[in-house]
Each structure stands twice: as C-alpha cells, then as structure tokens.
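Researcher: Structure for this, please.
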Amino acid sequence: MEYIEAAKRATDDEGCIFCDLPAEDDDERTKILSRGELAFVILNSFPYNPGHLMVAPFRHVGEFGALEAEELAEVDALVARSIRVLDDEMQPHGYNLGMNLGRVAGAGIPGHVHWHVVPRWNGDTNFMPVVGQTRVLPELLEETGARLRPRFEEAR
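Model: Predicted structure, token format:
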C-alpha cells in the first residue's frame, strides 16, 4: 500500500520510473533485464510473485491508443520472450498478463503504459496478504534478476 499511495501522490513533474530508470544506463541496479529499440523488460520492485516483470515502451505515453504499431510489435515480442525465459528458468504453472489503464483501473503509474507478466504456481496464494498485509517471496529481487538476465540474452 505504501507504494500505491506514493504513486497516487506522484506527478509527471516528479519523474517516471519507466523513463528515468532506463536513462540511468545501469541495468543491473535498475533491474532492467532486456532492452529492445523501442521497449524494455524490468523486474517489478514490488512483485506479486517471484519473476513478476513489466514491459514498457521507452517513449513516455499514457494512452494505449497512442502507441505506434512498431512499439506494440516490440512489446509483444518482449512479452513473448519474457514468458519463454520464465518458462525455462522458473517453470510456472501459468501466467497473469495485463495492463491497468488509468488510475481508477489500478495503474500506479498512469502516465506511462506498461504490461505486467506475472508467473503463477498452483498454491502460490496464502493467508499472508490478507491477514498479515504482506507478501512472502522466496527469493530476493537481485537473485531473481541474476537468474533471468542471462536467459534474456540467450532468448534473443
């Protein structure tokens, strides 16, 4: 909730993680796993499950309909590559793929469209998020990034 509340208070004047992080040119620190010409893959810093990735265009655009055909094609290719990488490395039983368009739809960063790729396993939900208001992840983000980054290179 802290992340969501902070995102609600954020304005475009304060920056955009999908613009700012790629510009830092430190993919390991910023958790960027793969870059294309028009889009990139990044680990979600507040994952629903281990391996929760996001795919976003480099161009700052908040409306799905404003995306160019080339951007959509590259995002599709990166989503497909993300699924192949996660299949090979983590063997999930399924996926949630999706977007939250607009703040009312749950978008934490409504000014920059992005896709979520969430690997799912049988039994991956439990009482902790409801009762303890926390998610329990079996692996640190840095460990997940170290496992997945080389797989993205192999999957090119």
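Researcher: Any notable elements?
Model: Residues 46 and 151 are 22 Å apart (CA to CA). The first helix runs from residue 2 to 9.
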